[in-house]
Amino acid sequence: MTRSSDALFDALKQGLADIDARGLRRRRRTIDGANSAHMTVDGRAMIGFASNDYLGLAAHEAIRAALAEGASRYGAGSGGSHLLGGHSRAHAQLEDDLAAFSGGFVDDPRALYFSTGYMANLAVLTTLAGRGTLVFPDALNHASLIDGVRLSRAQTQIYPHADIDALDAMLDASRDETATKLIVTDSVFSMDGDIAPLARLVDVAEKYGAWLVVDDAHGFGVLGPQGRGALSACALRSPHLVYVGTLGKAAGVAGAFVCADATVIEWLVQRARPYIFTTASPPAVAHAVSASVKIIASDEGDQRRAHLASLIETTRAMLKRTRWLPVESRTAVQPLVIGGNDETVALAAALDAQGLWVPAIRPPTVPSGTSRLRISLSAAHTADDLARLDHALTTL
User: Fold this and answer.
1) Averaged pLDDT score across all residues of the chain
2) Is 180 annotated as a binding residue?
3) Domain count, the chain
4) Is residue 187 part of an annotated ligand binding site?
5) 356 inside domain
6) Please, which residues have CB within 8 angstroms of residue 60's CB and are 6 or more apart in sequence?
7) GO: which molecular function terms (predicted)?
8) Which among 57, 60, 160, 188 counts the fewest CB atoms within 10 Å?
């Protein structure tokens, strides 16, 4: 390498050394076979508490069969972007299914399917917002929402987490009454497991004529009647709502969707760069998601949600018996705040040695001094799985 190349690589190596010194190096794990509550990780049998497969559908036989059927019917890839030959009957059917399933919050619902939740959030925020727009995001929003707001180049005022009075005051003080306004929030916050005050947010959005963008990544399939999502759980209806649901978590497959009034969705089709300028996901994946939505809405889906609810209550009680600080959560995300990076990593390693995969979450994902274990529950877990985790946490 040349001297200039040496300098470039030296800067990266120093940056990596700094990450190591702060105990923040991230490492990937390799799973053999299907992702489930019980899996082989790096060659070892493990009970996994790291996955967002909340209903245990990722390895469901009917969904596997639908994926195979989709590949047989539609091939391996889409062949193009949605607007240039890549939009298959499987994509169209899935969008109809999702609009019917989760679109009860507007009179004329329509859904748009994306390859990932990150893309969906970027699309919504960069298309509905721009220079001259006022955006009001919750302080604890997911990185994809943060990045979407930044890329929109809108004027941004971040409101304190779930503080609706502060948000109301910010909107009231905004002087440009002609500017488009967006309120942006997660439904279930992924690091704390708490749920946004959605009913009050709708009231504020309607009061000030603002869009309310809700990212229901951790609520779709789990919350509400038949798992229809956080908006359904709160029985909310408003034309101001723009709903984003993720399909790689509770649905067990991949992708995401935006659901809103048909006019909003048509605007995204015409203007959303993350939708227009990318190859459509394989139609087989969309075909498998449609099968998943049917299971989510079925009696089997109700049974899985009931089992998950039981696991959540057991875990809440269990974490209160430990010497660390549980975060109040009634969702499948159950955080246990340890504090320092080194202690958190050491505890995760001790659990790993006992065959329990519980990830350590550290800054910058969470604030400094609040490093934690994040226990993600699945309907595929058993009471025995939780008993093993309970024993480990109370004896370490």
Assistant:
1) 96
2) no
3) 2
4) no
5) yes
6) 252, 292, 295
7) 8-amino-7-oxononanoate synthase activity; pyridoxal phosphate binding
8) 160
Give the domain range for residue 222. Answer: 61-296
Of the candidates 255, 217, 259, 218, the residue with the CA atom closest to the CA atom of residue 241 = 259
Q: Locate tokens 């300098």: which residue?
A: 7
**What is the 8-class DSSP label of residue 134?**
E
**154 and 118 co-located in one domain:** yes
pLDDT tens-digit series, residues 318-364 = 999 999 999 999 999 999 999 999 999 999 999 999 999 999 999 99
Q: What is the CATH number of the domain that holds 339?
A: 3.90.1150.10
Distance between CA atoms of 77 and 285, rounded to whole angstroms?
10
pLDDT digits (tens, 9 = 90+) for 105-148: 999 999 999 999 999 999 999 999 999 999 999 999 999 999 99
CA 179 to chain centre: 29
**Binding site annotation covers 190?**
yes
Query: Averaged over 302-309, what is the pLDDT?
Result: 98
Per-residue pLDDT tens over the stretch 180-237: 999 999 999 999 999 999 999 999 999 999 999 999 999 999 999 999 999 999 999 9
Residue of 337 and 5 predicted with greater confidence: 337
Distances (CA, A) of 166 to 56, 125, 139, 171, 182: 38, 22, 12, 9, 15
Tokens 């099968």 found at? 291
* pLDDT one-digit tens code per residue, 316-329: 999 999 999 999 99
Please give the full DSSP string across 25-54, using - where no structure is assigned: ------EES--SSEEEETTEEEEE-----T
Say if residue 246 carries a ligand binding annotation.
yes
Based on the fold, state whether residues 161 and 236 are members of the same structural domain.
yes
Q: Do residue 391 and residue 261 come from a single domain? A: no
Q: What percentage of residues in the chain have a pLDDT greater than 90?
A: 94
DSSP letter at 117? H
Among 115, 125, 173, smallest CA distance to 145 is for 125
Residues labelled as active-site residues: 190, 218, 249
How many Å apart are CA 250 and CA 368, to the nearest integer?
30
